[in-house]
Design a protein that fits this description.
Radius of gyration: 16 Å
Helix content: 25-40%
CATH superfamily: P-loop containing nucleotide triphosphate hydrolases
Order of helices and strands: HEHEHHEEHHEHEHEE
Largest sheet: 8 strands, mixed
CATH class: Alpha Beta
Number of domains: 1
CATH topology: Rossmann fold
Number of strands: 8
Distance between the termini: 30 Å
Oligomer: single chain
Length: about 210
């Protein structure tokens, strides 16, 4: 996927904003979620992962939406050895890490649909996985499900270093964005900021996204 120059610059700006979001220690494990479906977070995770990787940072993407996964398909990788199989104890010691077509960029697929994703995500196995991957990769980006649809991302947000809320301009009503933000705060999330996706350049600084750091 080739982005137009202005979108590529926006992605690089977002990478820099994430790196500078915490002056003492940049976040290593970051969850990307949204208020509702179809906000563009999977595309954003894909683009950010490639940007970090192109900058020389070994980066891992984790498809943590186990209900309607889309990241593995977007990356063109297999789905074997997925996250749900690892968390349910069917594979060990770790899920399969797939190479992608981009150097320095790797991914873990969601795996087969699980009957109770929140229970799987609310486990010590996930904590161990994130700790282990943070030792091997400079950045671990999680593509999570929408906040208002299911409880999964609320479980995830307290287990990562930071959370980014993705909002599609002109698509998501403001009251849903406010509700999603409140859910993150009440779930103990370290909110790094919000990305406004597909905003018009005439109204905002970027035609692709704008980052509001805390």
């Amino acid at each position: 996927m080739r982005l137009p120059p202005e979108a590529s610059e926006s992605i690089r700006t977002l990478c820099a904003s994430i790196l500078l979001s915490k002056s003492d220690r940049p976040p290593r494990t970051i969850l990307f979620t949204s208020a509702a479906p179809f906000e563009g977070k999977t595309t954003l995770v894909n683009c950010l992962g490639k940007a970090f990787a192109e900058s020389g940072n070994k980066t891992l993407l984790i498809e943590s939406d186990m209900r309607k996964p889309a990241l593995a398909r977007a990356l063109g990788i297999g789905t074997e050895g997925g996250l749900s199989l690892y968390l349910s104890g069917h594979i060990s010691p770790l899920p399969t890490v797939h190479e992608t077509h981009s150097p320095n960029l790797f991914a873990v697929a969601a795996g087969p649909q699980a009957p109770n994703p929140p229970a799987l995500l609310n486990s010590e196995k996930l904590d161990r996985l994130l700790d282990e991957m943070a030792l091997s990769y400079q950045f671990v980006l999680l593509d999570g499900p929408p906040l208002l649809a299911v409880a999964d991302s609320r479980v995830l947000c307290s287990r990562v270093d930071g959370v980014v809320l993705v909002v599609r301009a002109g698509h998501t009503p403001k009251h849903l964005v406010r509700r999603a933000w409140t859910l993150l705060e009440n779930s103990g999330a370290n909110i790094l900021g919000m990305v406004l996706n597909q905003a018009q350049r005439s109204r905002f600084e970027s035609s692709y996204s704008r980052y509001y750091s805390q």
